[in-house]
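Session log. Operator J.P. requested a structure for one protein chain; no other inputs attached. Running the standard single-chain path with token output.
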Amino acid sequence: MAIIPRFLSVPHGSSFLFGPRGTGKTTWLRDQLPNALYLNLLRPDLYRELAARPERLRELVLGNISSSHVIVDEVQRAPELLNVVHDLIETPGTPPFVLTGSSARKLRRGGVDLLAGRAVVRTLHPFLAAEFPEFQLQKALHTGLVPLVVTAADPEDTLRSYAAVYVEQEIRAEGLVRNVGNFSRFLEAVSFSHAAVLSVSNVARESAVSRKTVEGFLEILDDLLLAFRIPVFTRRARRMVASHPKFYLFDAGVYRSLRPSGPLDRAEEIDGAALEGLVAQHLRAWIAYSSSDLKLHYWRTRSGVEVDFVLYGSEGLWCVQVQNSGAVRSSDLRSLKAFREDYAECSPLLLYRGQNHLKIDGIHCAPVDWFLRNLRPGSALPIKW
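Structure written below.
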């Protein structure tokens, strides 16, 4: 099978590599580090051996000292190994480690801090459009860009089973929740909050569980890397702004697979959330792969004026609005103009479903398809000045 190159590079020294299941961590590492000692903790025999005797890891590493790296796959299954890894990192002559995981939950509670400063943290995201030669915007909005899904013989069937696999293999296996049925209802309910300001109370009501339970479920989604939240931009705020974050599932296709639809649901509403989420996951990956200090925010006033994304850091200030339409109307620019009134230093950008690059009242309007295809880590935001 041909390996699709990724923008992520293997760090010097030891590292953690996180990423949701299906993002291709193992495939990518095997391609990048063919001479590494590979230890897969999903293998029952190896897991039992190392979980029972963590010091066995030292014996394996010292017996393969000529390996370029030591890859420990799904290290969250045996967090007690981190003490041995810590000691080996301090031992001269041992190869660097790459510790992969699809869940940060056990590691956060089991000793990641022991490696602070000794192992950098990287995350492998779904494909960026610029990584995937066969990128098609409409297809990406429906099946997403998770490598496991887009390279499958039947992407839609694989996507339908994706959430079930997580519920079965992660939730049940790790014993994260007592009632899987409650969690399944929560997943469906929280899908309506994708690309929206998160209301825990509303999700709790729709899930028929307590607010505290929903907060715990949201923490599980964060730990399993299935969702992320972006805060409101408040720096030097001149107006009263919202206080709650916006919520996104990590991939547009996963959102579509969880979001129920029926005759009362408008297709453009679902498509609009999917498009905004697709841009969000691209911006998030672009920032991560660029090793930039830019932070991703959104902006919303108490009166309801909202800008989908604000990127702020030493490199500059950008405000980005995503419009699920093929034409630009004057009303589509109001939020960007309002933000520019408060932050004259910003560079405003509207992304829409049309084909032409426009500049209206000093605001750049670019085809979202073109923008995503040209968004490359290490390069500036693709804007035709």
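Operator note: The first strand starts at residue 14 and ends at 18.
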